[in-house]
Structures are given as C-alpha cells and as structure tokens.
Write a structure and sequence with these properties.
Elements (H helix, E strand, L loop, with lengths): L1 E13 L9 E17 L3 E6 L6 E4 L13 H11 L6 E7 L9 H12 L6 H16 L6 H8 L4 E6 L4 E6 L5 E6 L7 H19 L7 H4 L5 H25 L3 H17 L6 H11 L4 E6 L7 E6 L8 E3 L6 E4 L1
Parallel strand pairs: 3-5
Antiparallel strand pairs: 1-2, 1-12, 2-5, 2-6, 3-4, 6-7, 8-10, 8-11, 9-10
Helix pairs in contact: 1-2, 1-3, 2-3, 2-4, 3-4, 5-7, 7-8
This protein binds alpha-D-galactopyranose.
Length: 333
C-alpha cells in the first residue's frame, strides 16, 4: 500500500497558555504542511527527511521514544509507541513547509502525518489525543491539546474556537476583507521546554488555591498569596475572557476590537506570563504601528519564533499571508 498523509501547521490567533488548564484557544490550521509519503510493510518505520539531520529508523516495538536519535525521530517514535505496535512498518520520506521551532506546530504536524501514514483510524479528536500523548513521550514537555487538535480538526476558511475542557470545536468564519499574516522574528526559540513545564506547574499551583482557572475570576486570583503564581493565573483568566470577546468581535466584523484584544494578549504574555522576548516585543510594536494592521501578538509558546498579525489586505509587505485549511488527511492506494 502506498500512502500520502498530510497534516497542516497552525497559527494561534488568540488564547495562549490557556489550553493546559482547560481554557479557550482560537487557532486555525494553515496552508503550510508536513507530508509523509511511503510504502507500508516491514517491521520498522524508516523515514528520510529533506529538512532534518539523518533518517528516522524506529522499531515497531520501540520502548523509550526519548532516547531515539536523531532528535526529530523521537516524534515518530512517540507516535509508533502510542499506536501500540502498529500492524505494519513504513518506508518513505517526510517533507514539510512548516518552519521548525517557530511556534507553528511543526511537531504536531509531523506526529499527525506519521499516525495517519501508519494506518491510524479514529476521529480527529482521537487522533489529536494520541499525538498529544506521543509528544509528551517524545519530549517530556507537558503540552496541551491545541496544536494537535488544530491540525486534526482544521476547517477551510475558518478559525476554530476550541474549549480545551470539553474539547468542542466551534468554527469561526473569517471575513473576506482581512488577512492573517505570520512574520518570523528571526529568533529561534530558546529554553522554551523547561520554561513551558514551569508555567504548567505554576498554573497547577494556582488551581490548588482557587480551583480550575477556567472557572475562576480575577477576584479569586487576587487571593493567591504567591505573587508569581498570582500573575500567571491572572494572565490565564483574562486571556480566556479575551478569546470569548475576540470570537464575538470577529462575528460582528469589528476587526478593530479584535486587533486590540490581540495586543492586550501580547502584553499579558509579556508582563504577566513572561514568555515574550525583546525581539518579539519590538516586532509586534513595529507591525502595530503600520497602517492597516488591526493587531499583532506572539503566537504559540513564545520565547521566540513567529508573530501573527490581523490586517487589511496587503497592509504588510513582509511575512506571509496564511489561509485556513482543512485538517490532516491520508490517501491510500
Ligand atoms: C505550545 C503547546 C500548546 C500551547 C501553546 C501555548 O504550542 O504545544 O499546547 O500550550 O504552546 O498556547
């Protein structure tokens, strides 16, 4: 059997560092994708790649995905492990137009494409959950569900309002007279993994005091004694509210309000959550001072990588305009 499995990257319009406490996010799957092409058969998964250092060569009964080399093969190994000894191996190649380590979910795209190529059967949510577990296993980073679910459940022409508690996905149609532009800061993400895990732990500490952050108010948050934990929680609570208001603003065609919320989100990620950098801040400020830009913010985990802007058509002559696309898929012949 020959397979061609494709999975898109994603850009998050608003709602960062909210998914792992069951909050709200508003991403879209984008027209940058990872493609796994190959022949099923054999008892190993062997994938060449044009963009990574050396092939992935993973046994179907791989025990410890984190010890696999080269590093990118850990994602493959995590998926193989989570599929629970797939019935068949695969020999083929990976190509990708999702820039690696840029906040556009190149790893989620790789995981989904590999899972589909190896014959995963199930709903988009089940695919996302399997790949989220694969990512935990591959990297040890306790990521939320946003990236994998965005890539699995993508909808052409729509962003998605995802409730990461009940895992419902509500389509948010994007107006025709607006562009979503992704601009790379040129700054590779540094120390993102350990800082990410630390933020997850700080949110857990906040929830030990006030209960689930998705249900908490800013008054609840004010009762948290630890100043750092209080700031983290204040970001999450306000960010969930901004996601709701952003979805409403887009539905009303109020792009000025939507852009303002993006900027507030960036400021909160910078000042309360401490995941921005000087380079990202300067880029957001520059984009926001450009005529026709409604708003801009860091997107994804932060610490470098890309910025996303909402603009009038052709307002920016840098970065690339992205379009919302359908989720991951596979063709077998
Ligand atoms: C990374 C994680 C996601 C999410 C974002 C921040 O992309 O994989 O689960 O937490 O960071 O919003």
């Amino acid at each position: 059997v020959t397979v061609v499995a494709r999975a898109p990257g994603r850009v998050n319009l608003i709602g960062d560092h909210t998914d792992y406490t069951g909050g709200l996010v508003l991403p879209m799957a984008i027209d940058r994708e990872t493609v796994v092409t190959g022949e099923r058969g054999g008892d190993r998964v062997v994938l060449r790649s044009t963009y990574a250092d050396g092939p992935a060569d993973v046994a179907l009964d791989v025990k410890d995905p984190r010890s696999v080399t080269p590093a990118w093969a850990r994602y493959v190994a995590g998926v193989v492990h989570q599929l629970g000894r797939p019935a068949t191996g695969l020999r083929g190649e990976v190509t990708s137009t999702v820039p690696v380590g840029s906040g556009l979910s190149s790893s989620a795209a790789l995981e989904l494409a590999v899972a589909l190529a190896l014959g995963f059967r199930g709903s988009p949510l089940e695919l996302a959950q399997l790949c989220q577990r694969a990512e935990h296993l591959a990297t040890g980073v306790p990521c939320g569900i946003m990236d994998q679910l965005s890539s699995a459940a993508g909808l052409a022409g729509h962003a998605m309002l995802i409730d990461c508690h009940d895992l419902t996905v509500r389509p948010v149609p994007l107006p025709d007279d607006v562009e979503v532009v992704v601009v790379h800061s040129g700054q590779p993400r540094a120390l993102a993994d350990s800082a990410y895990a630390e933020r997850v732990a700080q949110c857990a500490a906040a929830e030990a005091v006030v209960g689930p952050l998705r249900l908490a108010s800013l008054d609840d948050v004010a009762t948290i004694a630890d100043a750092l934990v209080r700031r983290r929680a204040a970001h999450v609570v306000a960010e969930n509210d901004r996601v709701r208001r952003f979805a409403a603003a887009v539905a009303d065609g109020d792009l000025v309000a939507a852009g303002r919320l993006m900027v507030q989100s960036h400021e909160s990620l910078r000042d309360l959550y401490d995941v921005s950098t000087d380079v990202l801040d300067a880029l957001v400020a520059r984009l926001c001072s450009t005529k026709g830009v409604f708003g801009a913010r860091l997107t994804g985990a932060g610490f470098g990588g890309c910025v996303v802007a909402l603009t009038e058509p052709s307002a920016l002559d840098e970065g690339w305009v992205v379009h919302a696309v359908a989720g991951a898929s596979v063709v077998e012949t």
